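Deliverable D4.2, example record:
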Amino acid sequence: MRKITKYTITIASAISFIAISPAPSNAASWHYGTPKILRGTYQRTQYAGSGKYRFKFQTGVRMTPRTFTGFGLGDPFALNRVSYKQYGRYTYLIRGVEFMYSHKVNHVKIVATHYKLKYRTTYPYNDKHYSKVYYR
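Output generated by the structure prediction step:
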């Protein structure tokens, strides 16, 4: 009889804790635009060619309130209609439409502090490695 009462009290208390606990909030929802703290231009100098044909060029990332652009030697990777989701203290996921060629939705994962940034595309390409670090 004592075992049944112990089990009944345990189950009743567990159900009461579940019923009392608040509903989970949707803290990681999509927000329109880019985070204010990340807006600006991050870049680095790189070199191409060899010998007397060697030259330097700027490569980097530019974020405005509504766009994300990765630029370099070739064609830029540009997203507009951007929204973001914050994953951690320095990690963001940016979603936008690539408006120059494919017109498809792309996702970019960014790890950034106030003065440096690195990124990788996660959908549809799923890059395994982050880019080099860009500085403000």
